[in-house]
Amino acid sequence: MSNKTYRIGLVGCGGMGRHHLKSIESVPNGDCVALCDVFEENLKKTGEQYGIESQFTDFEKMYREADLDLVVVATQTRGHHAPAMAAARHGINILCEKPISIDPAEADEMVAAARAAGVKFSINQQNHVNAFTIKTQELIAGGLIGDVVLVRGRNKAGRKSGNEFMEMGTHITDMMMCMAGPPAWVSGTVFVDNRLAGIGDIMEAKEMSPKDRDSGLVLGHRVLAQYGFENGISGEIHFLPFAKRNNRNYGFDVIGTEGQLAVRATEYGENGPILWHLDRPMEGYPSDLNWKPVEADGITIEEPIITMYKKMFKAIETGTEPPSSGAEGMLALEMILGIYESHRQNGARVNLPMAERSHPLERWRAEER
Fold first, then answer.
1. Given this model, what pLDDT does residue 369 score?
2. DSSP assignment of 219-260
3. Distance (Å, rounded) from C-alpha 152 to C-alpha 91?
């Protein structure tokens, strides 16, 4: 990579925005030179904390005046579309927080705008570049567990499942795609308490959890789904409504014909192993389990968001696709929203990408009026 310093502008100075600013301090060749937020008090406080004097309440104005190489969109999900579309119009590369957008139609527009403008567009699903995700891919390619049969996504819990589904779901589906490739279909079921969720249970994310992020319409307390991937691999995911968060449950399992691999992605290697190997495909008795930790030999271990920035800069310089591209982020979102569409159709298999590009819950509500 060259010695160029990349001028970064941040849209959204909330919790995720400040997390990006803290991370950028450790990114070689990265310098956040401008901030944007609609709340002036938040903008001023963040600017003082990180020593950034160039501050804006209008992202269009920031794009015109700040001479940016990259914009980071760290607003809540409902606010991703407008600043990303404007950045593309201004010819600025984009790193957007997950999920990519509220619905597939917006995601389509964002991906198309970036492509038409010739700018790089990446979604910050940072476990795409987690050292142990990469190590797992290497072990699979090397035949350690034989042919992959199933990839299982695992959630953290700790928030109402409808909100976790939208806020954390694309992290998990992205990691699943890293192991299994593009999805072909999804079949899912959504529950409220111990009954099937109905149209009357649809609500805004802020209604379900007022202190959580605004990620649009949500549904349900418990979600179960199966996937078929284009290469024949199967997938499964569940979101269970446990009140207490368990970060050590978050990640994915890969089951092969000759063994299994398990990654827990909340940590990135500094606090002990997060990748394990079981040398048989079926676990047998719980007392027989002898998972062995696997080190990430030959792989640089660092906070994945820092790796995301480095790989984004490299993609800009080389003209290649960045990790977790906008198109991949769109598929990760569809793997989540497709569950709602399948549930609406009584668990039917829904082809991915979905033919209908509006939000499935919006469409369900409209059809019942």
1. 65
2. --SEEEEEEEETTS-EEEEEE---SS--GGG-EEEEEESS-E
3. 38
Domain span(s) for CATH 3.30.360.10 in the chain: 128-300+332-363
CATH homologous superfamily for the domain 6-125+304-322: NAD(P)-binding Rossmann-like Domain (3.40.50.720)
Q: Is the dihedral of CA 328, 334, 339, 345 positive or negative?
A: negative
pLDDT value for 323? 95
The segment(s) of the chain belonging to CATH 3.40.50.720 are 6-125+304-322
Bridge partners (DSSP) of residue 224 are: 189, 238
Tell me the H-state helices in the chain: 15-24, 40-50, 59-65, 81-89, 104-117, 131-141, 161-180, 205-208, 304-318, 326-344, 360-368
Query: How many CA within 13 A on the CB side of residue 233?
Result: 24
Q: What CATH number was assigned to the domain covering residues 128-300+332-363? A: 3.30.360.10
The 10s digit of each residue's pLDDT in 326-365 is 999 999 999 999 999 999 999 999 999 999 999 999 999 9
| pTM of the entire predicted model | 0.95
Q: What is the mean pLDDT of residues 250-274?
A: 84
Q: Which of 15-24, 115-124, 253-262, 267-276 has the lowest mean pLDDT?
A: 267-276
